[in-house]
Structures are given as C-alpha cells and as structure tokens.
Amino acid sequence: MSELTNKTVEKVLAEIVEDLVQDWGLDLDEGITEKTLLVNELEFASVDIIQLCVAIEQHYEQKIGFQDLLMKNGSYISDLSIAQLTDFVTAKLNMES
Questions:
Q1: What residue spans define the domains of the chain?
Q2: Under CATH, which number does the domain 6-92 receive?
Q3: What is d(CA 97, CA 44) in angstroms, rounded to the nearest whole number?
Q4: What distance in Å separates the CA atoms of residue 91 and residue 89, rounded to the nearest whole number?
Q5: Directed axis angle between helix 82-96 and helix 6-21, to 10°?
Q6: Average pLDDT for 77-96
C-alpha cells in the first residue's frame, strides 16, 4: 500500500461518519469537517465510537488499535475531532505499509 495522506484519510473518515449519522436528524450546516467533534457536535455515544472504529477497520481491511487514541492516562477521552482521528488513522496505516 502506498503512503496515505491526511487529506485522503480525512475524506474517507468523513464519509464513514456521514453514513453513521445520516438518520440521526442532526443539523450539520457545514457537513463533517476536520473540526467536527464526535461527542459534542454529533452526539456520539460509546457504542457509536465502537461502530465507527469497526467501520474504519473494515474499510481499510486491517486492525488499527484505537485503544491508544481513545484512552489517555487510564481514562477514556471525553471527545475526539475528525482531525485527531485522521492524524491517528493516517499514522497507523502508514506504519503498516
């Protein structure tokens, strides 16, 4: 696999997130952007985060290991932006290539 860019990964992640929230009735004037927060703006619950992680792994057909992103100092993080998710996924995928 050739090295992926943040821009390429961000586009894929935005599409996956849009698929997950399409029936939630959210008012997303700007759509999903790098600044979009999963919990505060999209109202993600823990099960939604898990579904998102699974969908990303299925799309890229490999395990990514999201625990390093979702836990800091033994506690779950309170929110996550698309940009943070993009940086993490891009780095993990490029380590594997």
A1: 6-92
A2: 1.10.1200.10
A3: 30
A4: 5
A5: 120
A6: 94
